[in-house]
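2024-03-11 09:14:02 INFO worker-7 job=invfold-0412 stage=load source=structure_tokens
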């Protein structure tokens, strides 16, 4: 059995980086940036008014009561033609370029207007309510760095930078193969000894949230030829994830069958709970990750190994699961030699500190408990007993699984 961290490192070291592809920014939400995004434009392109009012020369309005002559108008998209002289002003609206000769905005709330005479009620500091050219960014500046997961805010920035296409990593295609004679798909006719297959559904969603494309290649019965035939459907994918059949029972065929098909096995057992039987290797060009069949183990191992593998293929800047610290909500006994990931309730105590409280029942078949969990509390191998109130490491689940 190898430690969790070593297993993850060995997986990450084997992951290919996906090639870049160019997509419209309208289609780029959630994609991982592969190339730096460079501003093609200075924003604002010129000094612009930030308010409705009058464009003036700051020196003219240094004292209250200055009286100016209105000589024209400027609106967003419409410049005032001509240079403004001392003693003059131009009616201006938000987003309009400042006419040459002006450097300050007298807001309309502070102006008394009579015909074309404009009187400043207050003194105004030079530069007030002017957005200087390049305030936000300048042509040639890097707006976004590679590795970033593009979000709606980034897309707005890209549009403003006049970058209509961006280089992003191709989404890896992840084949999901469920195994087991007992499995039927959700909603299908169920015999008395059958189980509704949940792993392909939960893992497909996990894969999508990690930024990859899941490909459900079905359920293989526990017969060697059937499994070999089913696994061949992963051709063309970047990775095959088998679900179940990974340990060494008489009906656990994945390792033997895929070995006959040319699997180069790297490792297959990890010192963790849930999910000791976890297999990693290479099957031709396709990386193979064999996840345990127990539904909680499959999802937890998916979070700890499959998601980082996908993030690595995407060249993302967040590969490892983020580990945080909170206050433990209950006493815990000492741990054995397997690293434990306890399904836990995530809360906040009276002082506003995050609390993590492991559920009583930790059976790796209990999806209801997993669904209610907001965190996985981490217990290192051989960790001593831990009293309620002690600091405890955890992985928050929100957004990932
Ligand atoms: P296995 O790893 O194949 O020995 O499966 C371990 C346990 O997980 C057994 O109780 C299986 O019935 C169950 N199991 C395996 N695959 C799935 C699946 N796709 N959905 C739900 N349960 C599963
Ligand atoms: Mg099975």
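2024-03-11 09:14:09 INFO worker-7 stage=emit residues=401
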């Amino acid at each position: 059995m190898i430690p969790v961290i070593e297993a993850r490192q060995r997986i990450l070291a084997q992951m290919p980086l996906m090639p870049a592809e160019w997509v419209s920014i309208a289609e780029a939400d959630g994609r991982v940036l592969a190339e730096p995004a460079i501003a093609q434009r200075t924003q604002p392109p010129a000094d612009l008014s930030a308010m409705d009012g009058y464009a003036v020369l700051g020196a003219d309005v240094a004292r209250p009561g200055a009286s100016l002559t209105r000589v024209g108008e400027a609106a967003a998209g419409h410049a005032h033609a001509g240079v403004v002289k001392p003693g003059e002003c131009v009616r201006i609206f938000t987003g309009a370029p400042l006419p040459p000769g002006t450097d300050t905005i007298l807001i309309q709330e502070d102006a008394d207007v009579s015909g074309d005479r404009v009187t400043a009620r207050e003194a105004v500091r030079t530069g007030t309510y002017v957005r200087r050219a390049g305030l936000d960014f300048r042509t040639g500046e890097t707006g976004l760095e590679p590795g970033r997961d593009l979000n709606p805010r980034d897309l707005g920035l890209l549009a403003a930078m006049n970058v209509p296409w961006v280089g992003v990593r191709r989404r890896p295609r992840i084949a999901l193969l469920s195994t087991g004679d007992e499995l039927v798909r959700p909603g299908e006719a169920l015999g008395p000894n059958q189980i509704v297959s949940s792993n392909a559904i939960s893992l497909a969603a996990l894969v999508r949230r990690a930024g990859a494309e899941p490909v459900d290649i079905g359920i293989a019965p526990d017969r060697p030829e059937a499994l070999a035939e089913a696994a061949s459907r992963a051709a063309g994918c970047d990775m095959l994830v088998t679900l179940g059949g990974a340990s060494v029972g008489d009906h656990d065929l994945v390792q033997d069958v895929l070995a006959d098909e040319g699997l180069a096995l790297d490792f297959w057992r990890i010192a963790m709970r849930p999910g000791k039987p976890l297999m990693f290797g290479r099957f031709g060009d396709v990386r193979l990750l064999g996840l345990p069949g127990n539904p909680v183990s499959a999802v937890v191992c998916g979070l700890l190994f499959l998601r980082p593998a996908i993030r690595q293929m995407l060249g993302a800047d967040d590969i490892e699961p983020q580990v945080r610290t909170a206050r433990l909500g209950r006493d815990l006994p000492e741990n054995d030699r397997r690293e434990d990931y306890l399904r836990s309730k995530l809360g906040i105590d009276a002082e506003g500190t995050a609390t993590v409280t492991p559920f009583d029942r930790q059976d790796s078949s209990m999806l209801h408990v997993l669904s209610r969990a907001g965190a996985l509390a981490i217990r290192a191998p051989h960790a001593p007993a831990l009293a309620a109130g002690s600091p405890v490491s955890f992985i928050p689940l929100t957004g990932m699984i």
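2024-03-11 09:14:09 INFO worker-7 stage=report msg="The first helix runs from residue 4 to 13."
2024-03-11 09:14:10 INFO worker-7 job finished
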